[in-house]
Write a structure and sequence with these properties.
Elements lengths: L1 E6 L5 E5 L6 H12 L6 E5 L27 E6 L5 E3 L5 E3 L36 H4 L31 H11 L2 H7 L18 H15 L8 H10 L11 H15 L19 H15 L3 H6 L1 E8 L6 E8 L2 E4 L1 H4 E10 L7 E8 L4 H11 L6 E9 L2 E5 L15 E8 L6 E11 L10 E4 L4 E5 L4 E2 H12 L21 H8 L8 H8 L6 E5 L6 E3 L5 E2 L4 E8 L1 H6 L26 E2 H8 L3 E2 L6 E3 L4 E3 L2 E8 L3 E7 L1 E3 L4 E3 L4 E2 L5 E2 L13 E11 L6 E8 L4 E6 L2 E5 L9 E8 L5 H12 L1
Parallel strand pairs: 1-4, 9-28, 10-14, 15-22, 23-31
Antiparallel strand pairs: 1-2, 3-4, 5-6, 7-8, 7-27, 10-11, 12-13, 12-14, 15-16, 15-17, 18-21, 19-20, 19-22, 24-27, 25-26, 28-37, 29-30, 32-33, 33-34, 33-37, 34-35, 35-36
Helix pairs in contact: 3-7, 5-6, 5-7
Catalytic activity: Thiol-dependent hydrolysis of ester, thioester, amide, peptide and isopeptide bonds formed by the C-terminal Gly of ubiquitin (a 76-residue protein attached to proteins as an intracellular targeting signal)
Function: Recognizes and hydrolyzes the peptide bond at the C-terminal Gly of ubiquitin. Involved in the processing of poly-ubiquitin precursors as well as that of ubiquitinated proteins.
GO molecular function, one term: cysteine-type deubiquitinase activity
């Protein structure tokens, strides 16, 4: 720690450096040695924000960390003179009168002496196994305990001082402090519910620290409070929030709600309960059983107010085993549609040569499979009922792989890859697959002296052949069909190989319509009797060998035949290869692309994305009890029971291996009358209408930015903006921004039928 020592005698300042694990005794020794004074005559005070603590630091083995001393804060030195009086720099007397904590009937956790949230002092309760009472002497954070609000001022309007990148904590705390159920609870007497024996809790210390801070914020008028003691407790039990780095307000909220629950858990000894499978029982029976088992181990204010229940349905893709469970939730993390969908560009080729290749861009779920991609492409390219699509990846101008498993996840397809789809007649599916790889001669000035190099180019063409015994003429005819859409309109009537008896344009026109069986069998036989129109070579999978194909060549039967097509000058004259060049990638991205403001979406579309069925990831496989193996099951969530306070976390931050991003998408959320009736799978008689009362906002980008909060004082029916220590009123129309990160809703109770009808009608509009 770096501490700024202020000597009250001459107001001089000196920087003291000590480990935060050093004791206050070591601090006294170092200060006294530095100033040349006797330790018995020295008093060191916590002087945070120029406010002297209620009592000097004790000379003990207590660490500076436990004493809540912060980085770069002030400490005050007073020295006793012979007459018992210390003089400050102005000559004023500083009487060293021992200050004891005030004694009153109030416990830290509240008590009968509390009146309207205002008190006059403390009484410290010691709990077994807890060091809270001994280390909580600094809970006033440099202010008189529970500074009484001025006459006529309302509580709940105090800000929180920023202790150094603690705006994330201030934002989360203001949202919780202004939750009516929490405020009412912690302003009352909750000492009997402190659970000091729970091994999953913090011996009650976190709940006591939060309760003390809440009382200050509701009783100090508009004077900002420095949450030093609370931050000290937080760092002690959650080291990830120690120090002065920026953190995520939602992660802190998750820890606080869970920690408060364990500290206030009414269950002292948690029973062991074996979970049962649904076994085809009615959902109501299974849901009630799961909630009863949950409440047998978890029973607190947090469960009563914040926890709901959702239905989780898992389906095995192999044996179709259905597993239904009902799980509790504290908040709902809603993905923004742009984070759960994926835009993909795929080039569609005609396997019968009836049309030009065309790229199509479709949008589908990120966790979708090839079947979903094929369905989206089928709609985009107006696929006929008797047609199918064969997906493939093109790499180095040849087919790298075919996506023949419809269940394969599209997450295996990278954005920089080239994906094509071949449109074919279903009647031909399953026959011999013919792949045509294009090759051309790269000419240079030295070509006259040495042979030119042949290189692959463009996208391969794929078609299906029905004949089992194929000849070179059959391959030649198939190539003619595939190339027919690429034919140049101004090409001459000259034959391909310079022969007068080659494929004439008139003949090619006939072949272009061969998929409609417009070419008579007799004509095709006549064409087969001529010389081959193209230079074709039979090759293997790696193109390591080439064997020229003649008209009477007989090809060995197989499921996949790979042929090289050499684009000679004559072929170039008749056909335009530009249509098969420069395939678009799946999705064009780049680090230099500027982030544009995205289209506004609604909270309901986020909820729809959250409840959409999706397959589990490869790292989150489900063990199927029927298959006795881990399976990549599909998962579907449904809302079953909603809590009184419903918290929505908008998932604005996304991370990948190479890119981190924050979505500034504006989410349009209702302030009043959020009706979730249509999402509920059970009807328990409760109201499913909610009103907004708090928002945690995040401005800026990743690794920094700034957090603020909007909170509504229910009694005043007025919104306020909490920006660290600054608090100001704000109109209801201004609280909707693209910075909204965590939304807090409160159930609207006692709705009449007429009001419900009006709400429903307004929502539909």
């Amino acid at each position: 720690l770096c501490l700024k020592l202020i000597d009250s005698r001459d107001n001089s300042q000196t920087v003291i450096r000590l480990s935060k694990k050093a004791s206050t005794r070591q601090l006294y020794e170092k200060v006294c040695k530095l100033r040349g004074i006797e330790q018995e005559k020295a008093r060191i005070w916590d002087y945070f924000n120029k406010q002297r603590s209620t009592s000097p630091l004790d000379v003990s083995d207590q660490t500076l960390d436990d004493a809540m001393l912060q980085m770069d804060q002030d400490i005050l030195l007073e020295v006793q003179v012979d007459n018992g009086i210390s003089m400050d720099s102005t000559g004023n007397d500083l009487a060293l009168v021992p200050i004891e904590p005030s004694r009153s009937s109030l416990t830290i956790a509240g008590g009968p002496a509390l009146s309207n949230g205002h008190t006059t002092g403390y009484r410290f309760n010691q709990y077994p196994g807890s060091s809270f009472g001994s280390t909580f002497m600094d809970m006033d954070d440099g202010y008189d305990s529970y500074n009484t609000a001025k006459k006529g001022e309302k509580g709940g309007l105090a800000g929180l001082q920023n202790l150094g990148n603690t705006c994330f904590m201030n934002s989360a705390l203001q949202c919780l402090v202004h939750t009516p159920d929490l405020a009412q609870y912690f302003l009352g007497d909750y000492s009997d519910e402190i659970n000091t024996e729970n091994p999953l809790g913090m011996h009650g210390e976190l709940a006591l620290a939060f309760g003390d801070l809440l009382r200050k914020l509701w009783s100090s008028g508009r004077a900002a409070v420095a949450p030093r003691a609370f931050k000290g407790k937080l760092a002690r039990f959650a080291p990830q929030f120690s120090g002065y780095n920026q953190h995520d307000s939602q992660e802190l909220l998750a820890f606080l709600l869970d920690g408060l629950h364990e500290d206030l858990n009414r269950v002292k000894q948690k029973p062991y309960i074996e979970m049962k499978d649904s076994g085809g029982r009615p959902d109501e029976e299974v849901a009630n059983e799961c909630w009863k088992n949950h409440k047998a181990r978890n029973d607190s204010l947090i469960v009563d107010v914040f926890q709901g229940q959702y239905k989780s349905t898992l389906v095995c893709p192999v044996c179709s085993k259905v597993s239904i469970t009902f799980d509790p939730f504290m908040y709902l993390t809603l993905p923004l549609p742009s984070t759960v969908t994926r835009t993909m560009t795929v080039t569609v080729f005609y396997a019968n040569g009836s049309g030009l290749p065309m790229p199509f861009t479709v949008t589908l779920m990120k966790h979708g499979c090839c079947k979903d991609l094929i369905l989206a492409l089928s709609t985009a390219c107006c696929l006929k009922i008797d047609e199918g699509l064969l997906l493939a990846e093109v790499y180095n101008h040849q087919i790298f792989r075919f996506f023949e498993n419809p269940a394969e996840l599209i997450s295996s397809i990278k954005d920089d890859e080239h994906i094509v789809a071949y449109r074919f007649d279903r009647k031909q599916g399953g026959k011999i697959k013919l792949e045509i790889v294009n090759r051309w001669q790269e000419k240079s000035a030295s070509d006259y002296l040495k042979g030119s190099e042949r290189k692959l180019f463009g996208a391969p063409l794929v078609t299906y052949l029905e004949e089992e015994h194929l000849s070179g003429a059959d391959i030649d005819i198939a190539v003619s069909k595939l190339l027919s859409p690429l034919r140049r309109t101004y090409s001459s009537a000259k034959a391909h190989g310079g022969k007068e008896n080659g494929f004439l344009p008139e003949v090619i026109d006939e072949l272009s319509n061969s998929h409609n069986e417009s070419v008579e069998t007799a004509e095709l036989e006549d064409l087969c009797s001529r010389e081959l129109s193209f230079q074709l070579s039979l090759t293997d999978e790696r193109i390591s060998s080439c064997k020229p194909i003649q008209k009477d060549s007989i090809l060995k039967p197989g499921k996949h035949i790979k042929v090289l097509l050499d684009w000679t000058d004559d072929v170039h004259e008749l056909y335009d290869p530009s249509y098969i060049k420069d395939l678009p990638v799946v999705h064009k991205t780049g680090f230099t692309v500027k982030k544009t403001r995205q289209e506004a979406i609604s909270l309901f579309s986020c909820l729809d994305a959250f409840l959409t069925e999706e397959p589990l990831g490869p790292d989150d496989m489900w063990y199927c009890p029927q298959c006795k193996e881990h399976r990549q099951a599909t998962k579907k969530l449904d809302l079953w029971m909603l809590p009184d306070v419903l918290v929505f976390h908008l998932k604005r931050f996304s991370y990948s291996r190479y890119l981190k991003n924050k979505l500034d998408t504006f989410v349009n959320f209702p302030i009043l009358n959020l009706d979730l009736s249509k999402y509920m799978k059970s009807k328990d008689g409760e109201s499913y209408v909610y009103d907004l009362f708090a928002i945690s906002n995040h401005y800026g980008g990743l690794g920094g930015g700034h957090y603020t909060a909007y909170a509504k004082l229910i009694d005043e029916n007025r919104w306020y903006h909490f920006d660290d220590s600054h608090v100001s009123p704000v109109s209801e129309g201004d609280i909707k921004t693209s910075a909204a990160y965590v939304l807090f809703y409160r159930r609207v109770k006692s709705k009449t039928k007429a009001e419900m009808a009006e709400t429903s009608q307004g929502h539909c509009c």
